[in-house]
Each structure stands twice: as C-alpha cells, then as structure tokens.
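Researcher: Re-running this chain for the archive, since the previous output was lost when a drive failed. Same request as before.
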Amino acid sequence: MNVEQNYDLESLKKKVEKQVKENKIIIYMKGTADFPRCGFSSQAVNVLKTLNMPFMSVDVLSDDPLWTALEEYTQWPTVPQIFINGEFIGGCDIITEIYERGELEALAAGKK
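Model: Regenerated structure tokens:
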C-alpha cells in the first residue's frame, strides 16, 4: 500500500469515527434500511426498528473503500456493524441477542 492509499484509508476511518459520534444509532450494512441486500442486514434493521428511534444506515456495497476502512476501524470483518451511543455493539447476532434479552432499549437509552 502506498502512502497516498494509506492516507485515504486514514481519512475514511476518520469519516467512520465522525459518523459514529454524530449518530446515536448507526448501522453499516449491505443495502439501506429501506432496501437491505442481505438477510443479516435485514434482520438487524428489523431489530433496530423495534426501538422506534431514528437511526442512520450506511450502504457499504456502494462504497467499497469505506467498507475497508470500517473493517480497520472495528477489527470486525463482517457487516452489518451496529454502533449505539458511539460504541461498537457488533453484528446481527449480537444485536438480536441483546434484543431477545430485553436489554436493547436500555442500551439505546444509555443505561447499560
């Protein structure tokens, strides 16, 4: 990787960090919240919708370099990736488990 590509990766990681800080709930996914393009993304969106809270979705399929930066930022190789209150929560399985335990609302409200 040359220096220019490394700089781009760093600037994209800063973009991810900015998005995470500026949005209470954000999901990086395949597709959009309205049109998920994989089953895991669809399930994660359905779980987030139970909160009745706004959330931002980012389609990593439309921005491959951002997907690479996201993987570097979280050290997590798959999507969806969900952040709540600036904290990386995990993927579909983890958000579903938190929901099934009845802990998702408290997490979103900032009450761990």
